[in-house]
Amino acid sequence: MIFTFSHPPIVSADTYTRVYTPPYWDAIKWATALVPYVSGGRAGCNSGSGSVGIYAAGWIGGGTATATQYVNFYVPTKSSIKAKVRIVYGGGTVNFGFASFSGTEWQWNLDNGSFHRHDISPPFSWDIVLGKIIDIVLLIAPELAPEESTAAEIIELFDAINTVYGMASTMEQLIESGDATDMTKSFTFTADYGNHVLGVGIRGTATGVVTGSGFAIMGGFIPSVTLEISNDCNGSADLTIGDVDLSDNYPIRGKQIQFQTIINNIGKGYADNDKVKFIIDEPGKPNAFNYTSGDCYNFAPATTIVRNFYYTPKTKGYLTFKAIADPLNEIVESDETNNEMDKTFYVKGLPPNKPSKPSGLPLGKTLTRNTTYTFTTSTTDPDGDAVKYSFRIKPEGASWFFVPGWDTESEGWNDGSVDFTPTIANAMGFPGTYYITAEAIDSDGMYSGESDSEVFWVAPNFPPSAPFITGPTSGYTVDTLTFSAYSSDAENDPVQYRFNWGDGTPVTNWTSTSTGHSTISVSHNYSTAGTYNFQVQAEDSNGVTSSWSSQSVKITVYVPPPGDIEVISTISAASFSIYKSGSLTFTGSGAYWDSGGTAPGYYSIVFNAVDGYFTPPNESDQLFSNGYITLMDATHTRPAQYMFPRTMP
Predict the structure, then answer these.
(1) What is the 3-state secondary structure (H, E, C) of 582-601?
(2) Residue 140 lies in a domain
(3) Taking the model in full, what pTM does it have?
(4) For a designed S-S bond to 180, which of 154, 174, 306, 438 qualifies (C-beta 3.0 to 4.6 A apart)?
(5) Is residue 319 one of the residues assigned to a domain?
(6) Does residue 463 belong to any structural domain of this protein?
(7) b or e along 525-561 (b: 16 or more beta carbons within 10 Å of the residue's beta carbon)?
(8) What is the pLDDT of residues 46-74, one digit of tens each?
(9) 414 and 532 housed in the same domain
(10) Which of 48, 66, 46 lies closest to 56, judged by CA?
(11) Residue 479: CATH number of its domain
(12) pLDDT tens digits, one per residue of 90-117
């Protein structure tokens, strides 16, 4: 037979094994009260055979049933214990309609403490499982089963199965025919000095509402409970959580990521039946994710295991991840306080939407060098984050440049509006085809990707306009003439000028560079009479010259305009002679005399004697062009005084 039964000896070695088989120390069943045709549970068990059976039904409520076998054992000191429980069973579950559930589990507890439960996958579907359970009863004790029995009544008959050999023989046949499952489960725990009771068994649950119902049924027996006892608790396992790695160090809302967790056994003993529980709290959503991994058996000392799971964050912000090794405290550990680890990650929001194609080009999309244009774009962010923008421009066949910094992306971030001036200095002023595109970044550093590009052209370089000349068209040989010249450049390039006076003197050097719309003034003296062709030419900063502009200037010899001499005396009989540079120029008489037009110069007057009068003194003065002099007495303040009568000596 595949089942053997024995009773454990009483031993006191530091490490030893005890194998318990039916009959067991005790058997206990429990079930919710069965309401016919509605919901409830039934259970049956017998310590003599190790039999266990449960039935649960749920409709407008729920049903639960448990059947547990108990063993009693003694340890001479605090001990770590690894238990191996063998359960042979048949059973199944079924759900009808909507919002219903049914399930089966195996369970254990120590000294009537809390039960530790683990799911069992029933081997059969409901349409055959009830017949299998009836087969168990009929094979063991056909006299017990009535000809027509309900599932609940059949399960209660497990109380009457008290022959372990009959139970074992029946289950062996069912295993060989594929109608039963033989499983062994392990778990560890710590027991203090003294006597203890360990319970192992099965459990079924079912729930349902008006729209559906659930049922669970399972029956079998427990052939053995093996305890591997170590009186040295320092030989226990000790589980810790190592680091947690993410498949993406910068997780994004709505994007699945993998969490990889390392669990270490830093103790001296094996850990069986180990689980790891993972909990994730999102902003405003505590316990957004709660998952417990499957068992890990024979977890050796000084080794690690890796547990992975996938999760998709739903909210941006700080996500808290917690991992708990042995969450049900099923494993004996030398340190029960180091099983948890918390870690916080920041989850970014989604990137901004792709910005609109940059706008702001003039009609025809042709730009003029040295003219400033304003480009704009906009977008939205799915998370409402603040957004900044950068623009990039490139000549056809060349590399992209950021605007306005032209060097790095960080210099280009702006509020969606940027001024751009194509110039030769920034390599964007050469004639040709160019492209501009925009990109957005939000406060999480998420990039939108580039917008659709816009194409534009930079116009060719045009020469400055022919200078416009203002200034005199005539003058004298003694004059210094001032001329002004004005030229404009279509690209607003700086402009310089040169001049050809037309009198044989060399053409001037180019003047200092001025802005593309400026006036310059120059002066020149034509020392010889004649008609001259004065010319001006402009040149922009790229060496492109305008045509010459010219203006005719007529120069004549300068003849100073005449002046006027007047002589005033006190008597009409006065007479005089006027000299210029020692030469007699005029003679005159009378109380008032005027020379009319007289060449400028230095003049002297000599008054003639008149009988009976004193003669006024001689007088000198300078005559300027268009000026006049009045020759009177020496004081120049009154008429020449002919005093009468003369006083004789």
Answers:
(1) CEEEEEEECCEEECCCECCE
(2) yes
(3) 0.51
(4) 174
(5) yes
(6) no
(7) ebeeeeebebbbbbbbbeeeebeebbbebebeeeeee
(8) 999 899 999 888 877 788 999 999 999 98
(9) no
(10) 66
(11) 2.60.40.10
(12) 877 777 767 677 889 999 999 998 899 9
